[in-house]
Structures are given as C-alpha cells and as structure tokens.
Amino acid sequence: MPPAAPELISPRSPRVAAARRLARRNFRGKERLFLAEGPQAVREAAAHRVDGEATLVELFATVEAAERYADIVGDARAAGARVHLAEEEVIADISTTVTPQGVVGICRFLDTPFEDVLKARPRLVAVLAHVRDPGNAGTVLRCADAAGAEAVVLTDASVDLYNPKAVRASVGSLFHLPVAVGVPVEQAVAGLKDAGVRIVAADGAGEDDLDDELDKGTMGGPTAWVFGNEAWGLPEETRALADAVVRVPIHGKAESLNLATAAAVCLYASARAQRASTGCRSVTDS
Predict the structure, then answer these.
(1) What angle do CA 126, 171, 70 make, to 5 degrees?
(2) Residue 283's pLDDT is what?
(3) Number of other residues whose CB lies within 10 A of the CB of residue 250
(4) Do 58 and 81 touch, CB atoms closer than 8 A?
(5) What is residue 135's predicted lDDT score, i.e. its pLDDT?
(6) For the chain, what is the radius of gyration of the CA atoms?
(7) What are the distances in angstroms from CA 29 to CA 37, 135, 164, 184, 208?
(8) Which pLDDT score, from 0 to 100, does residue 285 have?
(9) CB-based contacts of 256: which residues, under 8 Å, 6+ apart?
(10) Which of 10, 21, 89, 94 is the most buried (most CB within 10 A)?
(11) CA nearest 188: which of 274, 110, 113, 244?
(12) Distances (CA, A) of 270 to 81, 147, 210, 216, 263
C-alpha cells in the first residue's frame, strides 16, 4: 500500500494561515487556541481533557512524522481532532522553531480559574510575578510539575502562558497541573494566605537563607513560592506581601542563579520538607 500523500501542500492555504496566526498573542486570545509543537507536547495534548472536552482540536503532521508517531496520530483521532498530512514546508511555516519536528497541534486554552486553585487547598504552588521571558516561564512550570506542585499562578504582569516558546519550554508539563493566569499579585497572595498557604518570596537579597529555613523546619507546611523578574527580581512592594523573603545560598563563587535554576532548588526544597513532615520518603532518597 503506497504511503498517504500530503493534503496540505501550500503555506498559502487558508487552514495553514489560520494556524500560523496563532503564533501571535492577539489571535490566540481571540480564538482561545494555541500551538503545541513537537511530539511530547502533542502527545500530552491528545490525552488532556477539560471538563470532558478534548484539548487537542487539530493536528498537522508530515507523512514521515505521521508514520514515526503513529500512536500520536491515533490518539489525536481518538480525541476527535482533525488530522492533516502536510508538506514539510507547511509544517515549517506553522512552526515557530528553527528545526520543526514534524508535528504541530492546535489546542484549546486550558487555564484554570484562580478560585478553583484555591478550592483545591494546594500544598505547593509556584507564583510567577513579573516573569517576562517565555522560556523561563515554561521551564519554571516544568520544575513545578516535577517537584509535585499542585498549581502554578502567572500574575497579570507576567508573560502569556500560551506563548509558543513557553509551551515548548514546559515540555508537556502545561498539560499536567492547573495553571491560573492574569491574577494580580496582591490577589494571588491574599487568596493563597486565606487558603492557609505560607507565602515565600525567592530573592537573592532575601533576609532568610533557604538552608536555615529547612533547618528550622519552616518549609514543611503549605507553601507558595513567588518568583520575580529575570533581571531585577521582585519589587519591594511584592516582597512586602510575603511571609518570608528567602535567598538560595551561594556556596561557591557564582554571582547568582538564573530564575529557572533557583525555582527548581526552592520547589524541591519544599517538596522534600513536605514529604518528610508527612512521613513520606524524600524525593531525593533512594
């Protein structure tokens, strides 16, 4: 049986043009759709549901990619998504990467209302306040997922969750945990405090040392880490909202840690402390 032929052969196709526009924030907001690129993201999107409704609505794939990732194509069809076989130049035109991996999905928005995050009584939350770099936002989301956080909150001063670079940097974690977007930082902090969550601001100039906090046993309860801008950290008015301002200790000669690395250290520190306080095995124990 001969291989299937691409049905989309021109980047000028209206269907392709509509997908390409989703690289722009205003079109994403209007359509409430976003792009997920690469097999890992598309695989997660095909399995994801919001209130029983499939998140993945459309899949573009080269013939070669459709054969290589036949399971993804099958999952996409099972989810009710439209599947288009396309020429490589069509995928390249839709993709925002230099070297596309042959599969691009179109997904429905999936952010969670902040009120629903609070109702779930989370024990570990990452709050991204003033985070402007989409790669950092997606990587912090991935770290939060890996550390077992129950939610991520992006404030109204932070980057768009659905920026293609943020989606790629999350490596599928966007589909794993609730993410609330557009929440003013004051509202985020107040709501989490009312839900019994301790607010800890991560700042290189923090008064408290993370090692000391762990030694004192203050990290075992419900905690929301607030992470600031990549270049200038957290403004004073945001630090003032926190119950503690904590720095990651620098034991060597490095000037500082980048945002995503610091976030991973902080989130895993809380994860370990919380598991220890409930009698569970540490995430770093063998």
Answers:
(1) 145
(2) 43
(3) 11
(4) yes
(5) 94
(6) 21
(7) 18, 20, 13, 19, 40
(8) 45
(9) 204, 250
(10) 94
(11) 113
(12) 39, 9, 10, 13, 11
Angstrom distance (rounded) from CA 264 to CA 140 = 7
CB atoms within 10 A of CB 281: 10
Q: What angle do CA 226, 259, 224 make, to 5 degrees?
A: 20
- Residue found by looking up tokens 């991520």 in the block: 152
So what's the pLDDT on residue 263?
95
Distance CA 212, CA 235 (A): 24
Q: Which residues of the chain have pLDDT under 70?
A: 1-10, 277-286
Residue pointed to by tokens 């993370």: 210
Q: What is the pLDDT of residue 265?
A: 96
Nearest to 265 by CA among 186, 211, 199: 211
> Which CA distances in Å does 96 have to 34, 101, 131, 259?
12, 11, 21, 24
Closest CA to 120 of 192, 173, 54: 192
